[in-house]
Amino acid sequence: MKEWDAYNAAAREQGKALNALHPELVKGFGALNRGAATTKHLDAKTRELISLAVAVTTRCDGCIDAHVRKAKHAGATKEEMAEALGVAIALNAGAAFTYALHVLDAAGED
């Protein structure tokens, strides 16, 4: 298992390095995140629970780290996170099932 505080610190240092190399990229990424966080219909906790489910499906360690922190700050409980993760797990299984059907289709008729 990861030591998440150390992971976060290392990621922040690498983020600073990327910013020094390509500040417009980092500025654009920040603007995208601020835009996504500016919503009228979803509260912060709901956005973070969605973010956690997406982070799991995209296998993004940095996203997991950031959004667990934000979800906790928004008041999400471990139980709520577990339910959101259940949706992610089911969707991954559903995607695998659907792609299994693609394999059968590609295999054709004998």
From TrEMBL:
Q: One Pfam family, short name please?
A: CMD
Q: Record's superkingdom?
A: Bacteria
Instruction: Tell me the ranges covered by the Carboxymuconolactone decarboxylase-like domain, including all copies.
Output: 23-105
GO MF term list: peroxiredoxin activity
Name this protein carries in UniProt: Carboxymuconolactone decarboxylase family protein
Segments spanning the bilayer are none
Concerning SUPFAM superfamilies, the annotation shows: AhpD-like
